[in-house]
Amino acid sequence: MVRDMTDRSPARADRTEVIRQAALDLALEVGFNRLSIEAVAARAGVGKHTIYRRWPSKGALFMDAVLSVNPPALEYPDTGDVEADLRTQVHAAIDLVGRPPFGPLYRALLGEAQHDPAIAAAVNERFIAPQTQRTIARLEAARDQGQIAEEFDLELAVDMWSGPLYYRFLITQEPITHEHADRVLAALLAGMRPRS
Amino acid sequence: MVRDMTDRSPARADRTEVIRQAALDLALEVGFNRLSIEAVAARAGVGKHTIYRRWPSKGALFMDAVLSVNPPALEYPDTGDVEADLRTQVHAAIDLVGRPPFGPLYRALLGEAQHDPAIAAAVNERFIAPQTQRTIARLEAARDQGQIAEEFDLELAVDMWSGPLYYRFLITQEPITHEHADRVLAALLAGMRPRS
Predict the structure, then answer these.
(1) Model-level pTM?
(2) What ipTM does this complex have?
(3) What is the CA radius of gyration of chain A?
(4) Inter-chain CB proximity A159 and B164 less than 8 Å
């Protein structure tokens, strides 16, 4: 039986998506360390070779599965008040990263990024860099409106804005709350305001 | 042959140290993901059961081995100038964490902390919390000397001081440099100075 080529791509894409979803479901159930390709294959109803044809390792499959989740867009509003707008955006980010299902999956992915430079590079390219660009664009607008000092380095501002939240998430593993982010933001902006 | 009990403890301690060192050496050679208890046992010249009697898992062995390394003390001087003293301390911390052998081992340990809450708790108890206490003590002295505003929350200051450096180390994985830390510190202190 000859299969129509136009049929094959969607079927292949569907199967890829089924395997990704099986990997995410299992990771949430048993944790990344106990996740196995065998179990993902069984859950997805495919053979192990079907998985290895697409991804070279468990880490590569997991990375692709997590980064293919489409979280709600973390865009910044522009109401003209930079503090209010950063606050709005970070509350949405915290609700995403601090809670299941995305939170524990993202934590595990950042864990693997410490063992595998290819995973770290992919996380940066597909998740961190676009977010950094959005943050810098919003800060540039604030600088143009005189809400941030001309001389303040906006790349440094990104490190100082994201860093304290990731420090809680990955190091102390205390809850990241709206209230904590608000306090980081107020302290950060206190150092960024134009000198009068 | 009856062994003297007073001999046994040092011998046991020596063997524990030999196993820890074998785990660290192998982790640096092959990476944490390819580290195996079998290989550690072979390198240390002991049986696998000797390892499993001491540590329940590869992660537990690795955690104990990394946290048993005695890095140079990361104490703060107190010259009366808080910015200079934080700078001196952070340069030493960066030289430790940013370079082999401790740097890649610590990175791998923080990776495992994302998969295993027991490892995260141990890292906090044995490494992060003592450092946090030292930082807060130095900031309190600065506050007493009028170099930091009375109302500034010093626990928040720790998040904002450590966070940007860990963000580089774990997320963007750009080099953490003395110069970057100096810029973080200047921006942070700009927001912490007493209002005149």
Answers:
(1) 0.91
(2) 0.90
(3) 20
(4) yes
